[in-house]
Every structure is written in structure tokens, then in C-alpha cells.
Amino acid sequence: SYWNAASFNTPSSYLHFSTFQGETSADISFYFKTSAPYEAGDSMTSITRKSAGRDAYVGAPTVVSFSFDVGNGPVELNVHTPSPLNDDQWHRVSAERNTKEAILQLDQKFREVRAAPTQGHTRLELYSQLYVGAAGGQRGFLGCIRSLKMNGVTLDLEERAKVTPGVKPGCSGHCTSFAMYCRNGGKCVEKYNGYSCDCASTAYDGPFCSKDVGGYFEAGTLIKYNLIPEGIGASSSLDERNIIRNLPVESNLTREELTFSFSTSSSPSLLVYVSSKTQDYMAVVLHHNEPFAIDIDQRNLANGQPHTINISRVERDIQVQTRSEILQTRARRSDMK
To answer: Which cysteines bridge via disulfide bonds (predicted)?
Structure first.
């Protein structure tokens, strides 16, 4: 229900739901996001009776208002923000009214409280439907609303939006607001009703690419994987041509992609080594002075701190990337395969 959302695409778009009971107390909360320019006030939710009602709307780019009338005349609460709210970021609005007071809160930062009058009417009698979007002759809301709750009950915006012209279920642009939560180089991926973090190019896992999936190696220890397809590794006499002929069709011998993170206080250190039954091999080593070595960083990487390495080879082009620097070089050895 947290991501149950609807997008309002025209100024006249709205959703409607049955009314709710809020005679002595009622509360409403929702998130909204918009980049539309301000024009005379954008109504977001509204429910009325003939002479009294309640309404929440954006009265200006920096103002959210909550108004109601229980028979004693209209009451309006306003919260002001230092920066415009049509910034394409999510903002949370909550409003509550009871016999003692009315409260309007925005983003858990800005708040206004108004005490109820000591005399007069106190019961809020609502008969009309609840309108989300355009209502009461006001210009409708352009943007996205999600997690709309009335008296603690989440309304199904997506289901109603599926059958309502001018309104679409779900929201787009989640990564605009939440990409920062994908850690360690994880990529934010837009989804129909939210977002996810793609950790494939990182050395981390979990919903936010923050779970370390590494291991601790004592000196002289290693983990070995057999990358040769099943059925080929059983024979030790196969030459290079036989191996290539038996590789899967999708295999690509002209490129490699390698990504990992490490931290160590010792050098020289062999980090990764991959070889075949031929003379081909690839090694990633700290402080190694071979004829074909790439010095990717002048800093000391054996400082006990985490470092991320990305290596990409396409034919004779090699790209090596550290967390903060990129070095590209072209292989010039004629015997490199």
C-alpha cells in the first residue's frame, strides 16, 4: 500500500471514492510529487456537504492548505516552506481534525495547529463522495499521489485509476527521489510501483546494495571456481581449438568484464587469477612489475581500506577503473589474445 499511487495528467482529472465517517474526528495523509507550475491553486483532495466540507490543496508553490467548515464558518490552516514544492520530489501531507484542535503537517518539518472554538458546532457531517484531484471548481492537481489514507485506511488509487480517463495507475520517476538509497555504485531501476537497486556491477547485495558479500582470506588461502562448461572440463587433453569449438554459442572470447572490491594491508597480493588450458591468463595483482602491467593508481591501495576495481577488455582495448579514477590503455603486445 505504500506505493499505491496514481498519476493525474490533466487539470480536470480526478478520482472519486465513497464518503467516510469523520463527525468528531478524522485524519488524512498522503504523499504527492509534482513539477507543474502553480496556477490559482491545485486541489488534491476534497469532500463536501452542502454548507460544510474539508479540502487539502497546494495554494502556492510554497504553501499547503487544509480547510474545513463544521457550520461555524470556514477554517483554514496553512504551512509555508522556504523552497517550492513543485520540485518533482516526494512530500508528505497529514491533516487531522477533532473536537479539540486541527493539525496540518508537511514533511514532518512544517506544522500548524489551530484550537477548536469553545462554542458552536463540532460535528462534521459529510455526505458527498471523496474527490482526489479536480473538485469544487478548482484547478486539479497535476502530478502523482500515493499512499492516500483516510482514518488509517489506504485507498486503492491504482485500481480506480485503471478505469478513470485522465488518470493512470502508478507513478514514474521514482529514481529522481530515491536513487541516493542505492549504495556502493548500485543503479536505480524504475518499476511500475516503485524502484529497485541493481547491484550486478557492485561487490554488494541486498535491496540497497549495502550488504557485503565478501570473505576473509588468510595468507596462502584461495577460493577456486571451475569456469569451463560441464563436459569440457572432464578431458585434460583438449587443445585450444577443441575448447573453443565446445564452448556455448553465447560465449564471447573477445571481451571480459570483471568487478570486485577488496581491502588488504599486504603487498604484493594476488587478487584474481583466471587461466585456461592454453597459455591465456588474466591476473590482477598489487605491486606487480611484469612486462605488461597497468599502473592504475599512484596511491597505496594496500592501506586496509576498501577499493573497487572494474576491468573491461574488448579485443585489444583494456579499461581499468578504480572507485575514483579511470585509466584507459591499449594493449600493444602482438601476442595478446
So the answer is: 144-171
For the chain, what are the domain ranges?
Answer: 5-169, 174-212, 255-331
C-alpha–C-alpha distance, residues 171 and 4, integer Å: 9
Buried b (16+ CB within 10 A) or exposed e, 203-239: bbbeebbbeeeeeeeeeeeeeeeeebeeeeeeeeebe
C-alpha–C-alpha distance, residues 258 and 282, integer Å:
10
State which residues of the chain have pLDDT below 70: 1-2, 22, 38-60, 120, 135-138, 192-193, 228-252, 277, 288-299, 323-337
Q: How far apart are CA 54 and CA 93, in angstroms?
A: 14
Residues 242-295 have pLDDT tens digits of 555 555 555 567 777 887 778 888 878 888 888 876 778 888 888 755 544 555
Rounded Cα–Cα distance for residues 9 and 165 (Å):
9
Domain made up of 174-212: CATH architecture: Ribbon (2.10)
The domain defined by 5-169 folds into Jelly Rolls (2.60.120)
* Cell (9 digits) for 100: 479539540
Strands 75-80 and 63-68: antiparallel
CA nearest neighbour of 15 among 100, 134, 117: 134
**Number of helices and strands in the chain (H, E):** 3, 25
Q: Give the separation between CA 308 and CA 324, rounded to whole angstroms.
A: 9
* Separation between Cα atoms, residue 210 and residue 230, nearest integer Å: 33
